[in-house]
TrEMBL record:
This is Thiamine phosphate synthase. SUPFAM superfamilies: Thiamin phosphate synthase (SSF51391). It comes from Xanthobacter aminoxidans. CDD domains: TMP_TenI. InterPro entries: Aldolase_TIM, ThiamineP_synth_sf, ThiamineP_synth_TenI.
Length: 210
């Protein structure tokens, strides 16, 4: 990427669902509002995605050096010009690693246990992600504990999913390499760029305090 990541500290990932209402201009503004490494695009349940629509949204983020990953299937990565996938551990991850590596990014998603994480990390995934992209209430404490455990022991980057700005701070303190801002958090203030800027401010103030 043209803009190198900070020497220390977490970078942001943004989560959006590809609906007719998703505006590429808003995605671009959100990416520009902080140190955003990656955008993860989700597929609405039961719907098929159009490669041209994906390419339009992806381009808005990629022109600012953010990678764009698709949750789930690897089938549209090449045709839509995406950078890779965010895929559940198990057979889907094995398939994506076989088909996409080393040309594309393959992240292991939604890991809920230490055992799952270690298997995913050993498989060759580019990162391990703890927590669902749409977290359930009460899930965060387990996610934070897994991030803290992983960060102390392993070199493969880890991702924690945050649903509030306080969770952003907690994940940074736990040692997350990347913090994914859930879609609910990005919509919480009405404007995703404002949320991204606020999350980035949490990370910067945390670095200053160290």
């Amino acid at each position: 990427m043209a803009n190198p990541p900070p020497a220390t500290g977490a970078r942001l990932m943004l989560v959006f669902t590809v609906t007719p209402a998703l505006d590429p201009r808003m995605v671009e503004a959100a990416v520009r509002a902080g140190d955003v490494a990656c955008v993860v695009l989700r597929t609405p349940a039961g719907e098929k995605l159009d490669a041209a629509r994906l390419a339009e949204i992806a381009g808005a983020a990629q022109r600012h050096d953010a990678a764009v990953l698709l949750e789930g299937s690897e089938g549209l990565v090449a045709s839509a010009g995406l950078d890779g996938v965010h895929v559940a551990a198990g057979p889907a991850l094995d398939s994506a690693l076989r088909l996409l590596k080393p040309a594309a990014i393959v992240g292991a998603a939604g890991l809920a246990t230490r055992h799952e994480a270690m298997i995913a990390g050993e498989s060759g995934a580019d990162y391990v992600a703890f927590g669902a992209l749409a977290p359930e209430p009460g899930e965060f404490f387990r996610v934070r504990d897994l991030v803290e455990w992983w960060a102390e022991l392993f070199e493969v980057p880890c991702v924690g999913v945050a649903s509030s700005l306080d969770e952003v701070t907690a994940l940074a303190e736990a040692g997350a390499d990347f913090i994914a801002l859930s879609e609910a958090l990005l919509a919480s203030a009405g404007e995703a760029p404002k949320v991204v800027a606020a999350a980035q401010a949490r990370l910067v103030s945390g670095d200053d305090a160290q």
